[in-house]
Amino acid sequence: MRRGGEDPRPGLATDDALRAITDTFRSVSAGDFESRVPPIGDTETAIATRTAVNGLLDRVDAFVREAGAASAAAAEGRFYRRFLTTGLQGAFRSSAEQVNQSLDAMSRNAARISQADLARLSLADELESAVLTVSEQVATAATQMGASANGLASFARGAISDAERGLETVTSLRAASDQIRDAVDLINQVASQTRLLALNATIEAARAGSAGKGFAVVASEVKTLANETTSSSEEIMGQVSTVQQAAADAVGVLEGVSRSFREISDLIDGIAVAVDGGAAAGTTGLSQLAEVLRAEVSRFVATIRSS
């Protein structure tokens, strides 16, 4: 009853109707989008109110469900799943179209990201292939260089040994030349004494007259032999001097060759250490570096592929 004793006008919502609407909105606010306003009266106003409220809730429910479905599809990469705008009007339709535009943008971004991933994986494959090829070539070159270095080192050691033997031979030749010189000096001394004796014998043969003629002939022959011996000794001394000079030059050359080959041997040993590494020196060889490079690049590429 209204004030003044008047009856309520037909179609005016009662407290029960308002309570039903309020309870429905509370349920919807709590997340129950399937909640609807029950019948609140038979009047035209009650029926229109219930229809309008439930129609609004139907649209909100449809909007929320469609937005959820579109978002779930986008999360799975199914960007072709569109937000259906059938029956939507006003702000609902605008929001749905905006969601579809966002889905289009997400699809383009996903395509770009996919292309970037493909490019990244392709780059990783190319990098791995290039590095593996280079590391294999470096390892092969290191092996060949190591073999060559070992061969050169063996050759250098052999050359040093040959040069040392040649030096010993030339030194022995110089010693033999000195002995020959000493022997020739002794021969010259004997020849000098022989000429003196031959001169004395010639003088004595002259004193003896005819009895000493035969002895004078012998003394003359002895003198001639002594002179020839002296001449031959001088020639031998010249040859010995030439041999000694050549031997001295050969000694200098062989000593220089030995020093050069020792330096070459040291350089080759350094190359071998650089190629194969040296545990004592704590250095890493070229072939080992190639293996390290291959392992590091493989690890890097694996990280790229898994990211």
From TrEMBL:
<keyword id="KW-0807">Transducer</keyword>
<dbReference type="GO" id="GO:0006935">
    <property type="term" value="P:chemotaxis"/>
</dbReference>
<dbReference type="GO" id="GO:0004888">
    <property type="term" value="F:transmembrane signaling receptor activity"/>
</dbReference>
<protein>
    <submittedName>
        <fullName>Chemotaxis protein</fullName>
    </submittedName>
</protein>
<dbReference type="InterPro" id="IPR004090">
    <property type="entry name" value="Chemotax_Me-accpt_rcpt"/>
</dbReference>
<dbReference type="Pfam" id="PF00015">
    <property type="entry name" value="MCPsignal"/>
</dbReference>
<dbReference type="GO" id="GO:0007165">
    <property type="term" value="P:signal transduction"/>
</dbReference>
<comment type="similarity">
    <text>Belongs to the methyl-accepting chemotaxis (MCP) protein family.</text>
</comment>
<feature type="domain" description="Methyl-accepting transducer">
    <location>
        <begin position="95"/>
        <end position="307"/>
    </location>
</feature>
<dbReference type="GO" id="GO:0016020">
    <property type="term" value="C:membrane"/>
</dbReference>
<dbReference type="InterPro" id="IPR004089">
    <property type="entry name" value="MCPsignal_dom"/>
</dbReference>
